[in-house]
Design a protein that fits this description.
26% strand, single chain, elongated, alpha/beta
Amino acid sequence: MEMTLQLTIDCADPQRLVEFWSEALGYVAEPPPGGHATWREYWAATGVPEEELPVGAGDTPESIVDPAGRGPRLWFQQVPELKATKNRVHLDLKVGGGRDVPLAVRTQRVTTAVETLIEAGASVLGTTDEPDMGHYAVVLQDPEGNEFCVV
């Protein structure tokens, strides 16, 4: 039996997070299957009752995929409640190159990525700068407050 992995992120505004995380991960919006104009049209064609779809659900892309086909699909599921507490699961965007890369180079790579993410709508929550341990990372949050790290 084949298994694939999808990461689902609850949110209020799927389109906003599709745009942000596409930029952050180098992903693209997932087109609706089977030649359908929208995901909502596809869901209707597969029998999903209208009352199960929030207003606007599926009118614009709500999922993103890795164009190289390596990473998991991310689906931004619209929910009515707002985020209330710290994430129990978060993404680490590993841009530094790993411990074989000098700390100064990793730090610059992380800093450059963080600047790009801030321009895309992220905000910085904190920085971990531990040169004695060879570690540098920045904790950010996406436009809806979901925490993630850039390492």
